[in-house]
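Re: the pair you flagged

First of the two:
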Amino acid sequence: MPSEQVKFQSNSHVHYGGKTYQVVLTDRRIVLYARRGALMKSDDVVTQNLEGLQAVKYREEGLIDKKGIIKVQSLKTEMDLSGPAKEMKAMYQQMMQFM
């Protein structure tokens, strides 16, 4: 939206619900975006408002190829986002500014 400011944008793909997305974190919401389809292209967009967040948790898995996992909980929904640890940690730190 025009009045939103982008605080973080992922360089690599983040996994959510068995699909991969690019993540954009604004000062108001988390936006997951992917362009899908071979012939008939369509946009796949998932959003979560930061206003109603109750908890954000971060953890890492793996020894060599570390994966970062962010669990975002709100009143009605729960999101589990995973991706490269370095990038997920940066996104988590940005999210914590809104808690």
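Second of the two:
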Amino acid sequence: MCGKINPETLHFRPITERDFDSCQGFSCNNTSMDSFLKQEAYFRHISREASTTLFFIGEELVGYFTLCHKKIQLDEDDSGMPNDDSLKHRDSLDIARIAISETRQNLGIGEVALRLIIQLAYIINERYITLDALFEKRNWYRKLGFKPAIQEEYQKENELSLVYMYLDVYDPKLLDDYFENP
């Protein structure tokens, strides 16, 4: 397939028990992500540890994301203090998992899913979105506005091959507009 997907063809909804068969047939070409969806996602969802949202085109499961809340972690300066002391005790909406079906990758589905996650962050009044990006996907997340929280992870591959990143959804222009145009 070539081109981008029409976002209006995607339907998002929370995972349910009736999604078992769809989840068993899902593959994103990452064993860990596939196994999580097939074996853990529904349990974690109903036990309220995390929330998994599935997305479909028609009846076809084309992806999912799992969200939870975490404390934000930031890089430390030479004194051992986080670069921005006001952030070290803040919560974030953490993207614990995001995966697109192997046959539907590179069609813009992940970008549509991230826009939905950003909308959800606004709805629940969460300023920061965090994630552990696969090392090979870090530039894709950066293109979408995410920043590395720990610069060394971004620059060289580590043993886990993950890069901790965050997105600040705060828009100071909205506040400026509010005070300028009461």
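The radius of gyration is 18 Å.

-B.
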